[in-house]
Fold this sequence. Notes:
Elements: H1 2-8, H2 19-29, E1 34-36, H3 45-54, E2 63-67, H4 72-80, E3 85-88, H5 94-106
Parallel strand pairs: 1-2, 2-3
Helix pairs in contact: 1-5, 2-3
Amino acid sequence: MYQLKLELDGYTVEVAGDGVAALEKARSLHPDIIFLDIRLPKLDGLGVLEALRDDPTIAAIPVVILSNWNERELVDRGIKLGALDHLIKSQTTPARLSQRLKAWLKA
């Protein structure tokens, strides 16, 4: 539903099915922003974020964590690794995500 809303708003959206694919897409596509779940197959989202930040060619891509996992330790680690924000899926509508996107892209 997030993908559909963003596409209806005119954004091009790529989806990766696991953490390894997410890194590959980030390296090949250099997206304007990445929405990243914490629980992903093959490589979890925080591992993806750490790998993004360790690669100078993609380190500057803004990342927003969008997950149902909101334990304080996970949120703190994501922010420490440079995520712009940590949103809880069950509390974030597609419209709200789309509204905040412009601000994140300016950050």
